[in-house]
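[Automated response] Your request has been received and processed.

Submitted sequence:
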Amino acid sequence: MQFKTLAKSLALATTLLAAFAAPVSAQVKEHTFKVGIGLSDDHPQAQAVRHFAERLQAKSGGKMNAKLFASGALGNDVSMTSALRGGTLEMTIPDSSTLMSLIKPFGVLNLPLTFNNEAEADAVLDGPFGQKLLAMLPDKGLIGLGFWENGFRHVTNSRRAINTADDLAGLKLRVIQSPLFLDTFNALGTNATPMPFTELYTAMEQKAVDGQENPPATILASKFYEVQKHLVLSRHMYSAWVLLISKKTWDGLSADEKKIVQEAAREATVFERKTIRAFSETALGELKKAGMQITELPAAEQAKLRTKLQPVLAKYGKEFGEETTSELMGELAKARGGK
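Generated structure:
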């Protein structure tokens, strides 16, 4: 009799435990998200995608995973973002500037000479302003899971050292396929040439363009030092990526699955920023070792850049929405300790 009672108690306990576990396991199905990126497999962005995959697996009991397709295997930022909207690709991580053709306010993040440091960027992107931008994405068939850091952008070229603002004049530079980037570099006197990132290395190797502009991590990981001699620390623009998932994919997930994806994305965001900042710190030393000549614009020359770019700032401040631009500047003032 006691054995029967004990057996019943054990059975009840097992049933209760199963009941507690059931909601999560029952609501989580097998999913493997394809994640396409334009950057190389060893770039910090790729490392962060793998971390995201690990966290997905851990949180879903191995049921959910993410598979990385690097080096533009699935297309460039523009075509992959389009694929997400159409539901033929699950995830990608484009530069925020890629989204400004869909949602103009995203462009304010790339206004030249706006952010002073990474802490300011984190405060703005993780705060109400950044969340407001992400909330605009679902109407365009996209879901934003967070902002990842690309970093401060610098100019490289194969022709000459850049020591003054005027030294940029005449260089043929590849830029992101965006009117803001075109106007920014044309205002600085360069021949700005829009081109997908996936075509850039070959274009520089064949001298179709003199140079380009990107953060140190990308310059190093993409081995641009093989085809570029000069790097100037221009810090002309801060660049962020947006971790995106297709709304069609998102809408097909259960509440538990969405929660797992969001939690894994938050953890991957922390990992990505930490990883790319550590990588960027050592990147300049590695680029020097690889033979690049690095110069830095003095404060007076940086001020000249700002003067040259005033018309661009005025034009795009209006185009992206004066209210949005004002809101960004207000958030920056808060981050800097203003009232």
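Summary generated for your ticket: Residues 13-23 have pLDDT under 50 and may be disordered. DSSP finds 13 helices and nine strands in the chain.
If you did not submit this request, please reply to this message.
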